[in-house]
Specification:
Elements: E1 4-6, H1 14-53, H2 60-93, H3 97-123, H4 138-148, H5 153-174, H6 178-184, E2 190-192
Antiparallel strand pairs: 1-2
Helix pairs in contact: 1-2, 1-4, 1-5, 2-3, 3-5
Length: 256
């Protein structure tokens, strides 16, 4: 009997493919957001420095540099995490359950970061109730920033934040559906029955006769006849011909 282990082919469900596309959309939104941040961070820095220049803060340039570093660092960090999600999407298409679990972990972190940034951007990053430590009010800083950057930056940034957040949420939910669970579940090894008429391993098969294990065929071409055992009379095929020559047909008896 031939017992072979075979892995059945798995077909990727459409929800896993859609989830990967949503993760790629999230990555594209983060790339665009970083480009916008790099294009406007200089003007934002100048606006913050001008806002703190007329206050009692001794070093307004240092305050502006801190906000500049935070903006660049957070944008690069979000982009790196988005790239990780894009790579995980490729492994998810291959049905690797470990990549799906990692996607949930990294995606949960990104939801918190993206959601927090979205709320902060909608409410105004520098909005506060009044002066803090002798500095300008949050409304004043926010007004200067809005005057320095183009008017389309804020709505576009909010739109990208909403799209990326919804795409990431939908991708994580699709990976948790029952059809996705079946795709990521490790398939059980199947048993393949032997092919009818196949020879057993280690035993040759004679044409026209199925060889049985332990019982070789006798009298067939390629197999010698079984010799007579001691104490057993020889068979008629092994006995010498005792018929006299005279009685054999087609022979002449010798003369006297």
């Amino acid at each position: 009997m031939v017992d072979t282990q075979s892995t059945p082919a798995r077909q990727r469900p459409s929800i896993v493919t859609i989830s990967s596309y949503l993760l790629f959309l999230f990555l594209a939104c983060q790339v665009i957001s970083l480009i916008i941040t790099l294009a406007t961070i200089g003007k934002t820095r100048d606006a913050i420095r001008d806002a703190y220049a007329g206050s009692s803060i001794d070093n307004p340039d240092q305050v502006a540099d801190v906000f500049f570093a935070i903006g660049i660092g957070s944008g690069i960090l979000l982009l790196l995490l988005a790239i990780v999600l894009g790579v995980l999407a490729l492994f998810n298409n291959q049905g690797r359950n470990g990549s799906r679990i990692t996607t949930w972990i990294v995606g949960g972190i990104m939801i918190c970061c993206t959601g927090g940034g979205l709320i902060s951007g909608a409410a105004g990053s520098f909005t506060s109730g009044g002066d803090t430590a002798g500095g300008p009010s949050g409304e004043e800083v926010q007004r200067r920033i809005e005057e320095a950057v183009p008017s389309w930056v804020t709505p576009v940034s909010l739109l990208l934040g909403v799209v990326s957040l919804l795409a990431l949420l939908a991708a994580l939910i699709l990976l948790a559906l029952p059809k996705a669970n079946e795709f990521f579940r490790k398939p059980a090894a199947g048993w393949e029955p032997p092919t009818p008429g196949a020879a057993y391993p280690g035993y040759p098969q004679t044409p026209g006769q199925s060889a049985q294990p332990g019982y070789p065929s006798t009298g067939e071409p390629g197999y010698p006849s079984t010799p007579a055992q001691p104490g057993n009379p020889p068979s008629s095929a092994d006995r010498p011909d005792d018929t006299p020559p005279a009685d054999r047909p087609g022979t002449t008896p010798p003369s006297s």
